[in-house]
Amino acid sequence: MADQVWYGCAIPDDLLYDVGMNVWVRLADGVAELGMTDVAQTMGGRMVQVSWKRTGRSYPRGRSLAVIESAKWVGPFPTPLTGELLEVNAAAFDADIAIANRDPYGAGWLARLRPADLAAEREHLVDGATAFTAYQALIDERGIRCFRCAQ
């Protein structure tokens, strides 16, 4: 996985992004793995709690799959795709609440879902190069400097 980095904020090339929602998407075998971008985890600060939505249900694009509470922010983790919520990463967050602060694109994933209409909703997602350009502007505009929690 190659990352493009701007002021410490990593944007991997091999993922898709909904920049407006600050969510990354990894597609494999009909399943979408979702997580917060490095920019999102930095803006929110160190996580302190995650409340998960129920698996086995369908959620429309934009609906929350979890509520994230951090040192600076409480808010939804929205899904960029309509689909059935298959799995949440509760065990990893129970073991290490700051896992997404340390590894937002790996062990810190939040949810896996089966997209219901990927062909129609794919237009809302951009590739890594397009996301990097959009995040450069956001980072510059807001003076964001990304960091990863050490522990």
Question: Topology of this protein?
Answer:
Elements: E1 3-6, E2 9-12, E3 16-18, E4 23-28, E5 31-36, H1 38-44, E6 47-52, E7 58-59, E8 64-70, E9 74-78, E10 83-88, H2 90-95, H3 99-102, E11 111-115, H4 118-121, H5 128-142
* CATH architecture level-2 label: Beta Barrel
CATH superfamily: RNA polymerase II/Efflux pump adaptor protein, barrel-sandwich hybrid domain
Cα separation of the termini: 24 Å
Class from secondary-structure proportions: alpha+beta
Strand adjacency order, main sheet: 3-4-5-11-10-7
Please describe the biggest sheet, giving its number of strands, its sense, and whether it closes into a barrel. Answer: 6 strands, antiparallel
> Helical element count?
5
The CATH top-level class label: Mainly Beta
Strand content: 35-45%
Topology order in helix (H) and strand (E) letters: EEEEEHEEEEEHHEHH
Q: Total domains, how many? A: 1
Counting copies of identical and different chains, the oligomeric state is single chain
Number of strands: 11
CATH topology: OB fold (Dihydrolipoamide Acetyltransferase, E2P)
Globally, the shape reads globular
Mean pLDDT: 92
Can you characterise this structure?
The strands form three sheets. This protein has a six-stranded antiparallel sheet with strand order 3-4-5-11-10-7. A three-stranded antiparallel sheet has the order 6-8-9, with no helix packed on it. It is 24% helix and 36% strand. The chain starts with a strand and ends in a 9-residue tail after the last helix. The chain contains five helices and eleven strands; from the N terminus they run βββββαβββββααβαα. The longest helix is centred in the last third of the chain and has 15 residues, at 128-142. The protein has one domain: RNA polymerase II/Efflux pump adaptor protein, barrel-sandwich hybrid domain (OB fold (Dihydrolipoamide Acetyltransferase, E2P), Beta Barrel), CATH 2.40.50.100. The chain has helices at residues 38-44, 90-95, 99-102, 118-121, 128-142, and strands at 3-6, 9-12, 16-18, 23-28, 31-36, 47-52, 58-59, 64-70, 74-78, 83-88, 111-115. The chain is α+β, with helices and mostly antiparallel strands and 151 residues long. The model has no long low-confidence stretch (mean pLDDT 92).
